[in-house]
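Postdoc handover notes: sequence design on the structure in folder B. Input tokens:
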């Protein structure tokens, strides 16, 4: 589960509500949360702004961790392994 999904769920914010707030489709939020889509830096900042306006208290690094950090890399490797095994 991505940090975005975890933070959004903890705050009871639906994908639809977040997507409407930042001007993208709910499907695009789902793709981002599932690691199947990347957004521009500008849209990422819109997500942070929207989450804070909707009541969360988060920073950019809370939602989008540095991909060079070891825990992030390990999580991504596990996700790839699960995806390969599921096929």
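Designed sequence:
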């Amino acid at each position: 589960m991505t940090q975005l999904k975890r933070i959004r769920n903890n705050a009871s914010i639906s994908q639809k509500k977040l997507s409407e707030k930042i001007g993208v489709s709910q499907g695009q939020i789902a793709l981002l949360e599932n690691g199947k889509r990347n957004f521009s830096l500008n849209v990422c900042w819109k997500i942070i702004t929207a989450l804070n306006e909707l009541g969360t208290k988060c920073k950019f690094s809370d939602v989008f961790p540095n991909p060079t950090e070891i825990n992030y890399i390990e999580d991504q490797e596990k996700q790839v392994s699960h995806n390969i095994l599921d096929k």
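Context for whoever picks this up: The chain is about 65% helix and 0% strand. Don't rerun without checking with the PI first.
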